[in-house]
Amino acid sequence: MTERKFGFGAAGDVFWTALKLGLTSFGGPIAHIGYFREEYVGRRQWLSDRSFAELVALCQFLPGPASSQLGMAIGAKRAGVLGALAAWIGFTMPSALLMVAFAFGAQAAGIGGAGWLQGLKLAAVAIVAQAVWSMSRTLAPDRPRATLALVTACAAVLWPSMAGQLVPLLFCAIIGIAVYKSKAGAGAEEGSGEPPIPIGRKLAAAMLALFIILLIGLPIASGWSGSAALTLIDSVYRAGSLVFGGGHAVLPMLETELLSGKRPLLTSDQFMAGYGAVQAVPGPLFTFAAYIGAAMETGYARIGYAMISLFSIFLPSFLLVLGALPFWERLKRNKTAQSALMGINAGIVGILLAALYDPIFMDAVGSAKELAIVIVLFILLQIWKRPPWQAVALAALAGLLFL
Known about the structure:
Blueprint: H1 8-24, H2 28-43, H3 49-61, H4 66-109, H5 115-139, H6 143-158, H7 163-180, H8 201-225, H9 228-242, H10 250-259, H11 268-278, H12 288-295, H13 301-324, H14 328-331, H15 335-364, H16 368-382, H17 388-402
């Protein structure tokens, strides 16, 4: 491995490397991890395969965008806290700028009734369907976990609220511990016992405490103030704090918060157009938050809202990654945590399945022609293994020509 350095020079190296990945990493979080390994382990040799695998495992334990968290963790190992920040900015900035530009363009052109918009909504149906299919094969491969996924889907459909998502996930965690604790942790390697980054445990504990304070305090502040900005910050911060499973899994929580709450911030057309567009850009799907902030306002205020929305959805990941890393050597060998996560991941599949039905399918597909387009897009993604941006481009074209 190359020698680890600290300071602004090392953080600059992290930034430019992450920016390269942010410009070229299509295909979602699993594909991102492959790109990261090639760049950070293969080309630059900033860490070993074993260290890389351990960081991937840590990011699977934490809620939020796994690939962005992995980049932050690698940046932290390379250049401390500045490295984590540089990794996030570099990897996130290209996608975020593209999504803000899309929000400006969509508002200027008007999105109501546009054929290309309907095409983007159909692309979202196919992409989420493909995500449910793929995730179910890895996260719910046996009868107990498949059952948890389907029961969670039923609960989320019949109980369309935040509680309808969190209560089933808690149930899944309990069942996971009961069923899989004896199987968890097989083959786990002993760690060195040394913190993988130069962050003291007191600072790490302070970050975790801040994460909890914001999670509890933002809903109170939002309800008391009535501010649209605080409502946005609260909604996206909680989405980034509580959602396992990456960008696709954040969809139902954001939909519940932004469209169905007491103060809706977006229309369904705006929401689905942005979700379709984010599939066509490189980088993390969580940059959908930048679009949300830009789409809910008019004029140049959209830039400010986009920035606070983007920062708020990634802030939980930043606090959790840097807060958890010093304690990871002990946690990664904890069978209870591993088994709970096995149950939670199965529940995530169910929540995503429920979101596929409502709002995605119910809002987008209203005719045989639209269903046929969805099937063609699904075949393109699942059978022919084409990247999502190609499906999005084809869907927009089909919407212009046929809808």
